[in-house]
Amino acid sequence: MSHIESSGGKDSQDFELNLAPIIDCLVVLIAFLMVSLSYLSIQMLDAGLSSPGGLAKTDASALSIEVRIESGGLMDVKVNQGTKKISGQKIARAAWASDLKALVAKYETKPTTALISADDDVSYDLVVGTLDELKSFVPQVQLSGF
């Protein structure tokens, strides 16, 4: 046999690619990605950000709520009509949602905006829980001081 006719000789350019290790690596990579994606959860925080001065200029008759979450277990709640404070009280965090709804129910008009701020050592979960609760009866909720 001549050198040109041989298919597996010493100078041959033909070889077989072993794909089994590559496929094994891809299977492990796919499994890893599927497991890691199951721990990934994306949540959208539906809130506006207010200017440092507080709520934007509103109608003089519109009600707005300012909630300051304090680290001591209280929430300082103020109800404003336009730029004038008309009510304010400290509410315990344990039952703040029902107390806040009762406070707002005293007024003829419903609040249109709410502003949430918190002390530095208040947990993120508490701020988001407050935001979600306020969104149930106030159309526009804004975060301030974060």
Can you offer a commentary on this structure?
- With 146 residues, the protein is α/β, with parallel strands linked by helices.
- The chain has a domain at 48-143: Nucleotidyltransferase, domain 5, CATH 3.30.420.
- 28% of the residues lie in helices and 26% in strands.
- It is built from three helices and six strands.
- A six-stranded mixed sheet has the order 1-6-5-2-3-4, with helices on one face.
- Strand 5, helix 3 and strand 6 (140-143) form a beta-alpha-beta unit.
- The longest helix is centred in the first third of the chain and has 19 residues, at 20-38.
- The protein starts with 19 loop residues before the first helix and ends with a strand.
- The mean pLDDT is 76.
